[in-house]
Amino acid sequence: MFLLVSGIFAIRQLRDANFSRRDGWLFISLAIIDLALIGYLLFVRLPNAKSSVPLTLRFEPDLGLLLLIILLLTLGWGLIRSLWAVWRWQDGR
Fold first, then answer.
1. pTM for the full model?
2. In b/e form, how buried is each residue of 56-68, taking b as 16+ CB within 10 angstroms?
């Protein structure tokens, strides 16, 4: 839910005419949150369960698909959002 709300907020901020320094810090913090979520899932959650992404997909398909969707959306949208923010920041200089 947090990722969805932050995604909608990010799109609104990126489409806005102004891109301030405050917006730059916002997008840096969103990128850090994405990296923390990915790190938690891959380096804390899965090792504690003695599992991996392929094993989770095979033996727990519902959790595996949820994990895969979160990872892909976080990586994909996070990369697009960050590149868009850098482009807006450089364009505004």
1. 0.75
2. bbeeeeeebeebe
